[in-house]
Amino acid sequence: MSGLALDVEAVEAWAKDNIPGFTGPVTATKFSGGQSNPTYRLDTPNGSYVLRRKPPGVLLKSAHAVDREYRVQSALQDTDVPVAKMHALCEDDDVIGSAFYIMDLVHGRTFDQPRLPEQTPDERAAIIDEMNRVLAAIHSVDLDAVGLADYGPPGHYCQRQTDRWTKQYHATQTEDLPDMEALIEWLQANMPDDDGQRTLVHGDYRLDNLLYAPDSANVLAVLDWELSTTGHPYADLAAVVMQWSMPATTEGRGLGGVERAALGLWSDQKFIDTYCERRGISGIGDFNFYLAFCFFRMAAILQGVKKRALDGNASDPERGLKLGEYVPEFARSGLEAAKR
């Protein structure tokens, strides 16, 4: 059995003991695409589920934390943030070789390309507006009320994240990138003062991590909470703007060079202004720092994806290598954002 193959019999036996009403036989199908925690669809006579597990092999400390994904989505069940229903978490590596959790399968639509080529201008505007609403909802969660006050360490979020991802980047580095080192140096030298804002942050908020209803612009579930923590909300907001600045290609998944207005797509400024209105914020200073920070963090993440692909334990090695080719571009774009 390969490292990414799923021991279906072991999953079935464990689920029968831990999930009320779970019955076999079970068939499992691995979802394609994702580069972090391998994800599988489980079909049973009584319904379908999703299993998300840690990848096999030697992993970086604190990476692929499926237990945190399970915790945050469980905490958000009764909030304005749409998430799938969580069923059970297995932290015993002996069951299938790594920790995993099982949640409901949510039937909906995902959009890989922010150009939304199959939608009308009005539909595109509604999809982006809902994306904006959900982001504001994530940042408006009462951490104490949902039991997430201790979900992330206290202190300066951007400083903490810059230090963490610098270490992660250097631990997975496969070549010398002067732009990346210069970007790290700039971030450290231009770190803004901690303004006291501390909210739930998703950590990888973008269109393709949202599951929309089949027949409306309503988001049914926010996916991929692996990088979530408590921290500064502007990092999530800047992540959206960062993604849109990328090339409008299959791999770039951005809006670079796209005439947005004619297509019903929002400008960066409209997205920022509408977000601020929803959160009662008058404006955002130092936005270029948060944008540069997001480029840096994505470069570090993709470097890790590339290293796992080279080591043979990536969820999708071929795509992982392709994504790894973007590391220099993200580093270069981060420096450009820093100079704005």
UniProtKB/TrEMBL annotation:
* Species whose genome carries this gene: Roseovarius indicus
Enzyme Commission identifier(s): 2.7.1.-
InterPro entries in the record, alphabetically? ACAD10-like, ACAD10_11_N, Aminoglycoside_PTrfase, Kinase-like_dom_sf
SUPFAM superfamilies linked: Protein kinase-like (PK-like)
Domain Aminoglycoside phosphotransferase residue range list? 28-251
Spell out the protein name for this chain.
Aminoglycoside phosphotransferase
**Gene Ontology MF term list:** transferase activity
User: Which UniProt keywords are listed?
Assistant: Transferase
**Per the record's keyword annotation, is Transferase included, yes or no?**
yes
